[in-house]
Specification:
about 140 residues, alpha/beta, Rossmann fold, 7-stranded mixed sheet, 7 strands, binds adenosine-5'-triphosphate, binds magnesium ion
Length: about 140
């Protein structure tokens, strides 16, 4: 796979990844502000059949989106996590262990040592205004 993506190529990547998901994955998205984490999430969720609007989770840090029979996406953005103790009140442990939930976590490094290893970890880096470098770590255990 190439590692430099236009936004159009990114939507193609999201389609490829969506086909590999079974419905209980942890996906971590790292990269600077504006690197494309939420944009990727929008394309991925559209490919999974999510109908609800995907935006940056702000106040609650987590947005839930339903799809399929009885599945959910938990879209988490830890950028504004101030206190690691707040992680407990987010209920992330329950979310990550729920077989019906795919967790997508932006800014996972905010809670680095408290999160389990992900199935996919995408690293986004700015290249030009319209391109991003994306490195993909995949753990098939
Ligand atoms: N090749 C590209 N890949 C992804 N996004 C791109 C690309 N080219 C331009 N963009 C634009 O860059 C912006 C990326 O914003 P986005 O909200 O996805 O970033 P983010 O990584 O989620 O940032 P934050 O850390 O603030 O949540 C969007 O406006 C998107 O349209
Ligand atoms: Mg974002």
């Amino acid at each position: 796979m190439p590692d430099i993506y236009t936004e159009k190529a990114l939507s193609g990547l999201a389609m490829d990844i969506s086909k590999k998901l079974h419905g209980h994955e942890n996906i971590y998205l790292s990269g600077d502000l504006g690197a494309g984490k939420t944009t990727f999430t929008k394309y991925l969720l559209a490919n999974l059949g999510v109908q609800s609007t995907v935006k940056s989770p702000s106040y609650q840090l987590i947005d839930f989106h339903r799809f399929g029979e009885n599945k959910q996406i938990a879209h988490v953005d830890l950028y504004r996590l101030n206190d690691l103790n707040d992680i407990a009140s987010l209920g992330l442990d329950d979310i990550l262990s729920d077989e019906q939930i795919i967790a997508i976590i932006e800014w996972p490094e905010r809670a680095e040592h408290l999160l389990p290893a992900p199935h996919y970890h995408f690293h986004f880096t700015h290249r030009t205004p319209t391109t991003r470098k994306i490195q993909i770590e995949e753990n098939n255990d």
